[in-house]
Amino acid sequence: MSSGLVNSYLNKKVCIITVDGRTLVGTLISVDMSTNVFLQRAVERVIRSPDDDEPSAEIELGTHMIRGDTVCLVGLVDEPLDASIDWTKVKGATIGTTKH
Length: 100
Prior knowledge:
Layout: H1 3-9, E1 13-18, E2 23-32, E3 36-46, E4 57-67, E5 71-76, H2 79-83
Antiparallel strand pairs: 1-2, 1-5, 2-3, 3-4
């Protein structure tokens, strides 16, 4: 990630996908891609498969650190769209690991 791009994401709501397939959403408060990424008001979204009767879940994590070498993707969140989605009703396939 370039420093200009990182600075434009600071203090904004982002979605992070990790190499092990976790989906984390929160406000980006600090980043050093060689070490750690910090999210404030972080939530992990656990999306269940369509054949799973259990609803998907959002697990509140508070301020959360993610090791920089486990970050696969960082993207800005469209907050009005995000707020309009009932994440407990979202179903989908598991994102596989990118570790080999």
